[in-house]
Amino acid sequence: MPERELTILARFSGAVTCVRSSRGPLGLMLAGRTADPSGEEMQVAFAGAASGDLPARLEDVVIERRGPGEFLVASAGRAWTIGARSVHVHREVAAAFYRAIPPRPAPLRRRMLYGLMLRLARSRAGISLLRALRR
Fold first, then answer.
1. Where along the chain do its domains lie?
2. Per-residue pLDDT tens over the stretch 85-103
3. What is the per-residue DSSP string for 43-54?
4. What is the DSSP string of the chain?
5. 26: which residues sit within 8 A by CB, 6+ positions away?
6. Which residues on neighbouring strands pair with residue 30, listed in sequence order?
7. Distance between CA atoms of 120 and 102, rounded to whole angstroms?
8. Which residues face 82 on adjacent strands?
9. Angle, to 10 degrees, between the axis of helix 108-120 and the axis of helix 124-134?
10. pLDDT digit string (tens) for 30-62?
């Protein structure tokens, strides 16, 4: 059983969209939310041809590596085998990043300078003044 866990590439929760492409190296892309508690967005792109009977929308998808160049896409009791040279997994980690490292507040002088510049940029005279200062 532990070997099987190591072969799982990605787990989606809920609706997953399937996009086929005949142009470019990526023939199939699956997009949805991860099954992790974070529920972040994830895309899995296959560098190979997509199966013809794969529907445009799936639910609760699990993607497993079966062997070299062979991947299994399983959803709701059905499974499809995809032949691909490689697989690219992209996860949206911005929310987790900014939770771990909060943004640094801008210094008061910089905030006042930007506020002044925005107020000047509201009028033609202010824009002319900013252009003159820039030279």
1. 2-97, 105-134
2. 889 999 988 888 888 998 8
3. EEEESSPPPTT-
4. -HHHHHTEEEEEEEEEEEEE-SSSS--EEEEEEESSTT--EEEEEESSPPPTT--SEEES-EEEEEETTEEEEEETTEEEEEE-S-EEEEE--HHHHHHHSPPPPPPHHHHHHHHHHHHHTTSHHHHHHHHHHH-
5. 45, 46, 47, 88
6. 18, 44
7. 31
8. 71
9. 120
10. 999 998 888 889 999 998 877 678 888 999 999
Which amino acid appears at position 80 of this protein?
Answer: W
Rounded to the nearest 10°, the torsion over CA 65, 42, 84, 47 is -160
Please tell me whether the overall predicted TM-score, pTM, comes out greater than 0.70 for this model.
no
Instruction: Name the token pair of 116.
Output: 């002044």
The two structure tokens encoding residue 48: 């190979």
- Tokens 């639910």: give the residue: 59
Residue with tokens 């033609």: 124
Count the Cβ atoms, other than its own, within 10 Å of residue 113.
Answer: 12
Give the Cα separation of 53 and 81 in Å (integer).
11
Total residues belonging to the chain: 135
CA separation for the pair 46, 82 (Å, rounded): 8
